[in-house]
Amino acid sequence: MTMARFGSLVLIGFALIAPVRAELLHDWYIGAGLGWDYAKKVRFEDSNAGLEYDQHVPQPLLAVGARLGDSWRMELEGAILESVPEILYSASAGIEVDPDDHDMVEASNVMVNVLRDFTTGVAWRPYIGLGVGMTKLDFRLSDRVVDLAVLQRPRIDIVDDQDTALAYQIIAGFTVPLTRRLDLAADYRYWKAPSTDLKDVLGNDLDISHTVQSAWLHLRYHAPNRGVLPSPAPRHKWKEGFYFETQVGGGFADDADVDNTLVTIDAFDFGPVTTFALGYSSRQRWLFELEGAYRKNGVDVVDFRPFQGEDSASGKVKAKSLMANIVYRFAPGSSIRPKFGLGVGMVDASFNIDQLGVCEFLVCGEEERRAKLIDDDDKAYALQAIVGVDVAVSPRVTFTAGMRYWATSKFSMSFPDGAPFKTSLAASSVQVG
What we know:
With 433 residues, the protein is mainly β. It contains 2 helices and 25 strands. The longest helix has 13 residues, at 3-15.
């Protein structure tokens, strides 16, 4: 089915919703969003190879929707999901391909979403949803240019093809009304194109699936007096005194360069983040808190540019931190309070990374072995910036959500052969609690 045919069917479907089509003109909304995504590793069964991706941010999304009663919504959504290929690797087949900046896997989507809102608390609305639609998948993969004194090689195409395929997504998130017509939403999405009909440059079929996990922030504008709440968010008297807060979420770790070497720890997996804080609320606006956090990200690729290129890897980077945060909350008296904060503290991090292939000078053998690359830990300083919102659920319970950017100073570690090195960590996370 082509994208044009699918778009026609969507328009016909909206027109056939006879019992509610008059209300759609009064209950409409439009929305725009930005997302952070991570694509799941692709397996090529014929060659026993796997393609690793790096994270890619940000991604755009536009949607037009309508409310169907008090609890249901329908959306027509367009979004782009871009994924950056990092390495195509198979030891058994002697394959190691290092893509360059030309390469990209881009999914341009048109989806129809059906979403269910739940009435919970006084000023926020959780929701779940299911979407189905079409994607145009543009798959470009090549082996990199080699421009060395002893070796010259042009860029070599491996796959450069497109396909239009069926896709679906599962959605879970929450909405926070800012005014009667404007609201902010955040959600997690699991998106998949289960079967694509692609060919490599030699004409061989590549029947692969493409899966992306993503986190999104949305801003929605509603028709007059038709937001999530029938009136502006209710007022709420925030209590002063001590509080306990716990949050969970996911983190996207930045690539980590190893100082004074050509090594980069690359293609971190999307990993869990958990925080616990004991704080004190002062004068309705200021929060002072002591926060403990745990972060973990898997490692898929290590980059040894320019001589060896990228090698597949496995392992984890774990970090435990203790931070002192100061947070300022806006809009005193409102049940919805945006906030901004800064934190400083200490982090204890451990790096345990194995290099899965040793392919020097672009030559791979079948006897490649697992080699320990890093197995060490150290302490460093850490800073973080916090942007979020607190929403009153009851007089004593608050729902909180936000984003954090967290970065460390240099860790001093050693390779297994005793050679010293320094590196640092940085990550963006989306959390709720």
